[in-house]
Design goal:
60% of the residues lie in helices and 0% in strands. The chain contains 11 helices and no strands. The longest helix is centred in the middle third of the chain and has 44 residues. The N terminus is likely disordered.
Length: 355
């Protein structure tokens, strides 16, 4: 930064020299650039500690600028000395460094504070006619309708909305182009100013270029803050609704039911799929027990199978006994059966030749 000092000095109550205003601004500006370009996580303790330290330096510098009354609405930009010109950047740097805070609980307050800083910077630049730009309208109260550049609600499709969207897109492209041009010109004079070899004219150009660059940055940040603010408010509303106690008693469980296309058709032909159960297994057992129609009468299936096998064995034994006793009727029946099996294949006479 240039080693240009403001025209006034500030002393503390004890009479000792307070930190120089230029040192406060340069220290806070340097911390912002370090935090903005660091590869460390933004939410780490080390980065957040630097953010708080930078905010403290810039806030103290802003208090001293207000006490010295360096800027007046009755002045023109040419009347502001080169030594005081860089202090126009204080609100913008405060807003940018405020956005680096990562506290989730205080995020809505953080973005609103940053927006106020950016608006103060833009209003001061507008009063001094630094460059031509459209000043976003300030939101007066939290419940008031939003007056930011971008509408909070989705616009109704129409030709006028398409024209507005095209205009906004063109404005963004123009701001981006101007920002790149200013950054390219800044890189040419930065080294000379920071080394202290620049004259008054080059130093003035350097700070004016920074002011114009931060105008485009502030407009972009205010636009992003408006969108983030709407999201944060919606999240807070959802949290309040979820934590709100309900006095309604719990609803009883619904009974199962079947939806049919035609009630008459369902009554005649059925629903087309198995109906819902009307009784439990125990109810069915009790009902059949009263009628005396229980299957197997409680006997295990194994006993019935054993009885069938015993009956078959007895039948086979009787056949063998009859054959041993030369029972003519049994012998004739067996011979006829053997002859029939010789002349007919297995499965003969069954339907569809099925065995």
């Amino acid at each position: 930064m240039a080693s240009c000092e403001p025209s006034g000095e500030v002393r503390d109550a004890s009479g000792s020299d307070a930190p120089k205003l230029s040192e406060l601004l340069d220290g806070g500006w340097k911390i912002y650039e370090e935090v903005d370009s660091t590869n460390e996580p933004l939410g780490s303790n080390a980065v957040q500690l630097r953010v708080r330290r930078g905010l403290g330096l810039l806030q103290e510098a802003a208090r001293m600028v207000a006490q010295l009354d360096l800027f007046s609405r009755n002045e023109d930009l040419e009347e502001v000395s080169t030594a005081d010109l860089k202090y126009l950047l204080l609100p913008a740097l405060l807003g940018a460094l405020t956005l680096k805070q990562t506290s989730r609980d205080q995020r809505l307050t953080t973005v609103q504070t940053a927006r106020d800083h950016f608006m103060d910077f833009l209003m001061r630049c507008k009063e001094y006619h630094v460059t031509r730009f459209e000043l976003p309208k300030r939101r007066e109260s939290p419940g008031e309708e939003s007056h930011s550049d971008l509408p909070a609600a989705k616009p109704t499709p129409g030709s006028a909305d398409l024209v507005a969207m095209a205009t906004q897109r063109q404005a963004k492209i123009e701001r981006y182009r101007q920002k790149k041009e200013l950054e390219a010109r800044l890189s040419d004079v930065r080294s000379a100013v920071e080394s202290g070899q620049a004259d008054d004219e080059m130093s003035r150009e350097f700070y004016l270029l920074n002011v114009r660059r931060w105008i485009t940055v502030s407009l972009e940040e205010i636009e992003s803050i408006g969108q983030e603010e709407e999201i944060l408010k919606n999240i807070d509303g959802l949290k309040q609704n979820s934590t709100r106690p309900t006095n309604q008693p719990p609803r009883p469980p619904m009974k199962p039911f079947i939806l049919t296309k035609d009630a008459v058709q369902a009554h005649v032909f059925g629903a087309g799929y198995p109906s819902l159960p009307t009784m439990t297994v125990d109810d069915w057992y009790d009902q059949h027990k009263k009628r005396g129609a229980l299957p197997d009468q409680g006997l295990p299936r194994r006993v019935a199978e054993d009885e069938d096998s015993d009956a078959k064995e007895r039948e086979e034994e009787e056949k063998e006994k009859k054959a041993e006793n030369d029972d003519e009727e049994s012998l004739m029946k067996a011979r006829n059966w053997d002859d029939w099996k010789d002349n007919h294949q297995r499965g003969y006479g069954n339907r569809h030749n099925m065995g």
